[in-house]
Design brief:
Layout lengths: L9 H8 L3 H8 L7 H14 L5 H8 L4 E6 L5 H16 L3 E6 L3 H10 L8 E5 L5 H8 L5 E4 L8 E4 L1 H14 L5 E6 L6 H17 L9 E4 L4 H12 L7 E4 L2 H13 L9 E6 L2 H5 L3 E4 L2 H17 L8 E4 L2 E3 L29
Parallel strand pairs: 1-2, 1-3, 3-4, 4-5, 5-11, 6-7, 6-8, 8-9, 9-10
Antiparallel strand pairs: 10-12
Length: 360
Protein backbone atom coordinates (compact mmCIF):
# COMPACT_ATOMS: atom_id res chain seq x y z
CA UNK A 1 0.00 0.00 0.00
CA UNK A 2 1.19 3.63 -0.38
CA UNK A 3 3.36 4.86 2.52
CA UNK A 4 0.72 7.44 3.51
CA UNK A 5 -1.82 4.70 4.22
CA UNK A 6 0.27 2.28 6.24
CA UNK A 7 1.01 2.46 9.97
CA UNK A 8 4.34 4.10 10.80
CA UNK A 9 7.06 1.70 11.85
CA UNK A 10 9.94 1.92 14.23
CA UNK A 11 12.23 2.27 11.21
CA UNK A 12 10.22 5.29 10.02
CA UNK A 13 10.75 7.01 13.36
CA UNK A 14 14.46 6.15 13.30
CA UNK A 15 14.84 7.63 9.81
CA UNK A 16 13.07 10.87 10.74
CA UNK A 17 15.02 11.25 14.01
CA UNK A 18 18.33 10.36 12.40
CA UNK A 19 19.06 7.49 14.79
CA UNK A 20 19.11 3.71 14.64
CA UNK A 21 15.96 1.62 15.16
CA UNK A 22 17.49 0.15 18.33
CA UNK A 23 17.84 3.69 19.76
CA UNK A 24 14.17 4.34 19.04
CA UNK A 25 13.29 1.07 20.78
CA UNK A 26 15.29 1.99 23.89
CA UNK A 27 13.76 5.48 23.93
CA UNK A 28 10.15 4.32 23.64
CA UNK A 29 10.65 1.85 26.47
CA UNK A 30 11.99 4.54 28.77
CA UNK A 31 15.46 3.06 29.19
CA UNK A 32 18.05 5.32 30.82
CA UNK A 33 20.77 4.61 28.26
CA UNK A 34 19.42 7.30 25.87
CA UNK A 35 20.66 10.90 26.21
CA UNK A 36 18.05 13.64 26.85
CA UNK A 37 18.82 15.28 23.49
CA UNK A 38 18.32 12.05 21.51
CA UNK A 39 15.22 11.17 23.55
CA UNK A 40 13.63 14.53 22.72
CA UNK A 41 14.40 14.06 19.01
CA UNK A 42 12.94 10.54 18.92
CA UNK A 43 9.81 11.56 20.84
CA UNK A 44 9.27 14.50 18.48
CA UNK A 45 9.56 12.20 15.46
CA UNK A 46 7.16 9.71 17.03
CA UNK A 47 4.58 12.45 17.66
CA UNK A 48 4.85 13.72 14.10
CA UNK A 49 4.28 10.20 12.75
CA UNK A 50 1.59 9.26 15.33
CA UNK A 51 3.74 6.26 16.29
CA UNK A 52 3.15 4.21 19.45
CA UNK A 53 5.09 1.12 20.47
CA UNK A 54 2.96 -1.94 21.09
CA UNK A 55 2.55 -3.42 24.54
CA UNK A 56 3.71 -6.75 23.18
CA UNK A 57 6.97 -5.29 21.92
CA UNK A 58 7.53 -3.39 25.13
CA UNK A 59 6.97 -6.49 27.24
CA UNK A 60 9.85 -8.25 25.51
CA UNK A 61 12.26 -5.86 27.22
CA UNK A 62 10.44 -4.81 30.41
CA UNK A 63 8.91 -8.20 31.16
CA UNK A 64 5.56 -6.46 31.76
CA UNK A 65 2.38 -6.40 29.74
CA UNK A 66 0.74 -3.29 31.22
CA UNK A 67 -2.37 -5.38 31.83
CA UNK A 68 -4.17 -6.30 35.05
CA UNK A 69 -6.46 -9.34 34.78
CA UNK A 70 -9.61 -9.96 36.78
CA UNK A 71 -11.29 -13.33 37.39
CA UNK A 72 -14.99 -13.16 38.34
CA UNK A 73 -17.80 -15.75 38.60
CA UNK A 74 -20.37 -13.31 37.19
CA UNK A 75 -20.83 -9.69 36.13
CA UNK A 76 -24.51 -9.75 37.04
CA UNK A 77 -24.29 -8.42 40.57
CA UNK A 78 -24.20 -5.10 42.37
CA UNK A 79 -20.99 -6.06 44.11
CA UNK A 80 -19.07 -6.89 40.92
CA UNK A 81 -20.29 -3.82 39.09
CA UNK A 82 -19.31 -1.48 41.93
CA UNK A 83 -15.92 -3.08 42.47
CA UNK A 84 -14.92 -3.21 38.80
CA UNK A 85 -16.06 0.36 38.13
CA UNK A 86 -13.53 1.61 40.67
CA UNK A 87 -10.65 -0.19 38.97
CA UNK A 88 -10.75 1.66 35.66
CA UNK A 89 -9.63 5.15 36.79
CA UNK A 90 -6.88 3.71 39.00
CA UNK A 91 -5.44 1.53 36.27
CA UNK A 92 -5.65 4.28 33.66
CA UNK A 93 -3.73 6.52 36.03
CA UNK A 94 -1.07 3.81 36.27
CA UNK A 95 -0.97 3.37 32.48
CA UNK A 96 -2.50 -0.10 32.64
CA UNK A 97 -5.36 -1.84 30.92
CA UNK A 98 -7.95 -4.22 32.37
CA UNK A 99 -8.79 -7.70 31.11
CA UNK A 100 -11.79 -9.49 32.62
CA UNK A 101 -12.24 -13.27 32.64
CA UNK A 102 -15.82 -14.30 33.45
CA UNK A 103 -16.15 -17.93 34.53
CA UNK A 104 -19.90 -18.48 35.05
CA UNK A 105 -20.13 -22.27 34.98
CA UNK A 106 -18.17 -25.42 35.72
CA UNK A 107 -17.17 -26.02 32.08
CA UNK A 108 -15.66 -22.56 31.62
CA UNK A 109 -14.12 -22.73 35.06
CA UNK A 110 -12.42 -26.01 34.24
CA UNK A 111 -11.16 -24.58 30.94
CA UNK A 112 -9.78 -21.47 32.63
CA UNK A 113 -7.79 -23.40 35.22
CA UNK A 114 -6.60 -25.84 32.59
CA UNK A 115 -5.29 -23.15 30.21
CA UNK A 116 -4.63 -20.28 32.67
CA UNK A 117 -4.99 -17.65 29.92
CA UNK A 118 -3.83 -14.89 32.27
CA UNK A 119 -0.32 -16.38 32.19
CA UNK A 120 2.00 -14.17 30.10
CA UNK A 121 -0.97 -11.88 29.32
CA UNK A 122 -1.07 -9.89 32.55
CA UNK A 123 1.13 -8.51 35.32
CA UNK A 124 -1.27 -9.42 38.15
CA UNK A 125 -4.56 -11.25 38.65
CA UNK A 126 -7.42 -10.08 40.88
CA UNK A 127 -9.68 -12.96 41.94
CA UNK A 128 -13.15 -11.78 42.98
CA UNK A 129 -15.43 -13.80 45.24
CA UNK A 130 -14.46 -17.32 44.24
CA UNK A 131 -14.83 -20.48 46.29
CA UNK A 132 -11.62 -22.07 45.07
CA UNK A 133 -10.50 -25.64 45.65
CA UNK A 134 -7.00 -26.28 46.98
CA UNK A 135 -6.01 -27.47 43.52
CA UNK A 136 -7.26 -24.27 41.88
CA UNK A 137 -5.46 -22.10 44.41
CA UNK A 138 -2.27 -24.04 43.77
CA UNK A 139 -2.69 -23.47 40.02
CA UNK A 140 -2.92 -19.73 40.59
CA UNK A 141 0.18 -19.89 42.80
CA UNK A 142 2.04 -21.21 39.74
CA UNK A 143 1.15 -18.22 37.56
CA UNK A 144 4.37 -16.42 38.46
CA UNK A 145 2.57 -13.11 39.09
CA UNK A 146 0.86 -11.42 42.06
CA UNK A 147 -2.59 -12.92 42.67
CA UNK A 148 -4.83 -10.82 44.94
CA UNK A 149 -8.03 -12.25 46.41
CA UNK A 150 -10.98 -9.88 46.84
CA UNK A 151 -13.98 -10.34 49.15
CA UNK A 152 -12.36 -13.44 50.59
CA UNK A 153 -9.43 -14.22 52.85
CA UNK A 154 -6.92 -16.80 51.64
CA UNK A 155 -4.23 -17.74 54.11
CA UNK A 156 -0.69 -16.76 53.15
CA UNK A 157 -1.82 -14.82 50.08
CA UNK A 158 -2.68 -11.13 49.54
CA UNK A 159 -6.38 -10.60 50.28
CA UNK A 160 -8.83 -7.68 50.56
CA UNK A 161 -12.14 -8.32 52.32
CA UNK A 162 -14.56 -7.43 55.10
CA UNK A 163 -15.08 -9.38 58.30
CA UNK A 164 -18.47 -10.94 57.45
CA UNK A 165 -18.66 -12.75 60.79
CA UNK A 166 -18.16 -9.59 62.85
CA UNK A 167 -20.48 -7.55 60.61
CA UNK A 168 -23.32 -10.08 60.84
CA UNK A 169 -22.78 -10.40 64.58
CA UNK A 170 -23.16 -6.63 65.04
CA UNK A 171 -26.25 -6.59 62.82
CA UNK A 172 -27.92 -9.37 64.81
CA UNK A 173 -26.93 -7.66 68.04
CA UNK A 174 -28.79 -4.56 66.81
CA UNK A 175 -31.98 -6.63 66.59
CA UNK A 176 -31.33 -8.21 69.98
CA UNK A 177 -30.82 -4.78 71.53
CA UNK A 178 -34.16 -3.66 70.12
CA UNK A 179 -35.74 -6.48 72.14
CA UNK A 180 -36.10 -9.22 69.53
CA UNK A 181 -35.67 -12.82 70.64
CA UNK A 182 -37.17 -14.65 67.66
CA UNK A 183 -34.78 -13.60 64.89
CA UNK A 184 -34.71 -15.44 61.57
CA UNK A 185 -31.83 -15.58 59.09
CA UNK A 186 -32.59 -15.75 55.36
CA UNK A 187 -29.84 -16.59 52.90
CA UNK A 188 -29.50 -17.64 49.30
CA UNK A 189 -28.21 -20.91 47.90
CA UNK A 190 -26.58 -21.45 44.54
CA UNK A 191 -25.01 -17.98 44.27
CA UNK A 192 -21.88 -18.36 42.14
CA UNK A 193 -18.79 -17.56 44.17
CA UNK A 194 -20.37 -16.08 47.28
CA UNK A 195 -21.04 -19.08 49.51
CA UNK A 196 -18.17 -18.28 51.91
CA UNK A 197 -19.74 -14.85 52.66
CA UNK A 198 -23.06 -16.56 53.27
CA UNK A 199 -21.49 -19.06 55.66
CA UNK A 200 -19.65 -16.34 57.57
CA UNK A 201 -22.75 -14.19 57.91
CA UNK A 202 -24.72 -17.16 59.23
CA UNK A 203 -21.92 -17.79 61.73
CA UNK A 204 -22.01 -14.17 62.88
CA UNK A 205 -25.78 -14.36 63.33
CA UNK A 206 -25.39 -17.51 65.43
CA UNK A 207 -22.59 -15.98 67.52
CA UNK A 208 -24.71 -12.96 68.42
CA UNK A 209 -27.64 -15.12 69.49
CA UNK A 210 -25.39 -17.33 71.61
CA UNK A 211 -23.77 -14.26 73.15
CA UNK A 212 -27.27 -13.02 74.13
CA UNK A 213 -28.24 -16.38 75.60
CA UNK A 214 -30.83 -17.03 72.88
CA UNK A 215 -31.04 -20.70 71.85
CA UNK A 216 -30.32 -21.45 68.19
CA UNK A 217 -33.34 -22.68 66.26
CA UNK A 218 -32.73 -24.31 62.87
CA UNK A 219 -36.33 -23.57 61.87
CA UNK A 220 -35.50 -19.87 61.88
CA UNK A 221 -32.81 -20.30 59.20
CA UNK A 222 -34.35 -20.38 55.72
CA UNK A 223 -32.85 -20.53 52.24
CA UNK A 224 -33.98 -19.44 48.79
CA UNK A 225 -32.48 -19.42 45.31
CA UNK A 226 -31.11 -15.99 44.25
CA UNK A 227 -33.62 -13.59 42.69
CA UNK A 228 -36.39 -16.14 43.01
CA UNK A 229 -39.60 -14.46 44.15
CA UNK A 230 -41.41 -17.77 44.53
CA UNK A 231 -38.53 -19.15 46.60
CA UNK A 232 -38.60 -16.10 48.88
CA UNK A 233 -42.36 -16.41 49.27
CA UNK A 234 -41.97 -20.04 50.31
CA UNK A 235 -39.18 -19.20 52.76
CA UNK A 236 -41.22 -16.43 54.38
CA UNK A 237 -44.25 -18.73 54.44
CA UNK A 238 -42.22 -21.32 56.35
CA UNK A 239 -41.33 -18.70 58.95
CA UNK A 240 -44.90 -17.42 59.29
CA UNK A 241 -46.23 -20.95 59.79
CA UNK A 242 -44.03 -21.62 62.82
CA UNK A 243 -45.70 -21.97 66.20
CA UNK A 244 -43.67 -18.92 67.22
CA UNK A 245 -43.00 -16.84 64.10
CA UNK A 246 -40.03 -14.48 64.14
CA UNK A 247 -40.37 -10.83 65.04
CA UNK A 248 -37.30 -9.95 62.92
CA UNK A 249 -35.67 -11.31 59.76
CA UNK A 250 -32.00 -10.72 58.94
CA UNK A 251 -31.47 -11.19 55.19
CA UNK A 252 -27.90 -11.73 54.03
CA UNK A 253 -28.28 -9.34 51.05
CA UNK A 254 -30.29 -6.17 50.43
CA UNK A 255 -31.95 -7.68 47.34
CA UNK A 256 -33.20 -10.59 49.44
CA UNK A 257 -34.34 -8.20 52.19
CA UNK A 258 -36.34 -6.19 49.64
CA UNK A 259 -38.00 -9.40 48.41
CA UNK A 260 -38.81 -10.40 52.01
CA UNK A 261 -40.41 -7.00 52.67
CA UNK A 262 -42.47 -7.28 49.47
CA UNK A 263 -43.71 -10.72 50.49
CA UNK A 264 -44.64 -9.58 54.00
CA UNK A 265 -46.53 -6.55 52.73
CA UNK A 266 -48.39 -8.72 50.21
CA UNK A 267 -49.89 -10.67 53.12
CA UNK A 268 -50.62 -7.47 55.06
CA UNK A 269 -47.82 -7.80 57.59
CA UNK A 270 -46.48 -4.35 58.40
CA UNK A 271 -42.72 -3.72 58.44
CA UNK A 272 -41.41 -2.95 61.03
CA UNK A 273 -44.57 -2.83 63.19
CA UNK A 274 -45.04 -6.61 63.12
CA UNK A 275 -41.75 -7.87 61.73
CA UNK A 276 -38.45 -6.00 61.41
CA UNK A 277 -36.24 -6.65 58.37
CA UNK A 278 -32.49 -6.04 58.17
CA UNK A 279 -30.31 -6.34 55.05
CA UNK A 280 -26.63 -6.42 54.17
CA UNK A 281 -24.67 -4.37 51.57
CA UNK A 282 -26.26 -0.88 51.53
CA UNK A 283 -27.04 -0.88 47.85
CA UNK A 284 -28.76 2.22 46.47
CA UNK A 285 -32.12 0.45 46.80
CA UNK A 286 -31.58 0.25 50.56
CA UNK A 287 -31.76 4.03 50.87
CA UNK A 288 -34.83 4.19 48.64
CA UNK A 289 -36.60 1.54 50.72
CA UNK A 290 -35.44 3.01 54.05
CA UNK A 291 -33.91 -0.42 54.66
CA UNK A 292 -31.84 -0.94 57.77
CA UNK A 293 -28.68 -2.67 56.63
CA UNK A 294 -24.96 -3.33 57.03
CA UNK A 295 -22.95 -1.13 54.68
CA UNK A 296 -19.88 -2.33 52.85
CA UNK A 297 -18.04 -0.62 49.96
CA UNK A 298 -17.12 -2.78 46.96
CA UNK A 299 -15.66 0.34 45.34
CA UNK A 300 -13.22 0.77 48.22
CA UNK A 301 -12.46 -2.94 48.02
CA UNK A 302 -11.65 -2.70 44.32
CA UNK A 303 -9.43 0.33 44.81
CA UNK A 304 -7.58 -1.26 47.73
CA UNK A 305 -7.00 -4.41 45.69
CA UNK A 306 -5.67 -2.43 42.71
CA UNK A 307 -3.32 -0.45 44.96
CA UNK A 308 -2.06 -3.67 46.53
CA UNK A 309 -1.57 -5.26 43.09
CA UNK A 310 0.41 -2.25 41.82
CA UNK A 311 2.57 -2.36 44.94
CA UNK A 312 3.30 -6.05 44.42
CA UNK A 313 4.06 -5.49 40.71
CA UNK A 314 6.45 -2.64 41.35
CA UNK A 315 8.16 -3.80 44.56
CA UNK A 316 9.69 -7.25 44.66
CA UNK A 317 10.16 -6.86 48.44
CA UNK A 318 6.50 -6.07 49.18
CA UNK A 319 4.60 -8.34 51.58
CA UNK A 320 2.97 -11.07 49.50
CA UNK A 321 0.79 -12.34 52.33
CA UNK A 322 -0.72 -9.00 53.35
CA UNK A 323 -4.39 -8.92 54.32
CA UNK A 324 -6.47 -5.72 54.15
CA UNK A 325 -9.72 -5.81 56.14
CA UNK A 326 -12.10 -2.98 55.27
CA UNK A 327 -14.72 -1.64 57.70
CA UNK A 328 -18.48 -2.19 57.68
CA UNK A 329 -21.13 0.01 59.29
CA UNK A 330 -24.61 -0.64 60.60
CA UNK A 331 -27.12 1.77 59.01
CA UNK A 332 -30.38 1.81 61.03
CA UNK A 333 -33.31 3.02 58.96
CA UNK A 334 -37.04 2.49 58.88
CA UNK A 335 -37.38 -1.29 58.63
CA UNK A 336 -36.20 -2.19 62.14
CA UNK A 337 -37.96 -1.35 65.40
CA UNK A 338 -38.71 -2.98 68.77
CA UNK A 339 -40.94 -6.06 68.52
CA UNK A 340 -44.67 -5.81 69.17
CA UNK A 341 -45.77 -6.52 72.70
CA UNK A 342 -47.39 -9.92 73.31
CA UNK A 343 -51.13 -10.03 72.66
CA UNK A 344 -53.12 -9.08 75.69
CA UNK A 345 -50.35 -7.12 77.35
CA UNK A 346 -51.60 -3.70 78.33
CA UNK A 347 -49.64 -0.51 77.95
CA UNK A 348 -49.70 2.33 80.41
CA UNK A 349 -52.72 3.86 78.66
CA UNK A 350 -54.65 0.60 78.91
CA UNK A 351 -54.56 -0.06 75.15
CA UNK A 352 -53.41 -3.45 73.90
CA UNK A 353 -50.20 -3.26 71.87
CA UNK A 354 -50.94 -5.84 69.19
CA UNK A 355 -49.62 -6.23 65.70
CA UNK A 356 -49.89 -2.59 64.74
CA UNK A 357 -49.71 -1.08 68.24
CA UNK A 358 -47.50 1.69 69.52
CA UNK A 359 -43.96 0.78 70.56
CA UNK A 360 -42.52 1.94 73.81
Amino acid sequence: MPPAQRHPTLADVAERAGVSPSTVSRTMRGLASVSPEVRARVEQAARELNFAISRQASSLVTGRTGVMAVLVPTLDSWFMGSALSSLGPMLRGAGMELTVYVVPDLAERSAFFERLPARRNADALLVFSFDLTMEETARLDDLGMPVIYISQHVEGRPSVYIDDVAAACRATRHLVNLGHRRIAFAHTVGVRGFSFSSRDRLLGYQQALTEAGIPLDDELVVTTPPRDKRGTTQAVGNLLSLREPPTAIFAEQDELAASVISTLRTVQIDVPERISVLGFDDQLMAEWLELSTVAQSPSDMGRAAAELALELINDAQADRSRHIVLPTHLIPRGTTAPPPSPHGEQEAGGQSNGAGGHHA
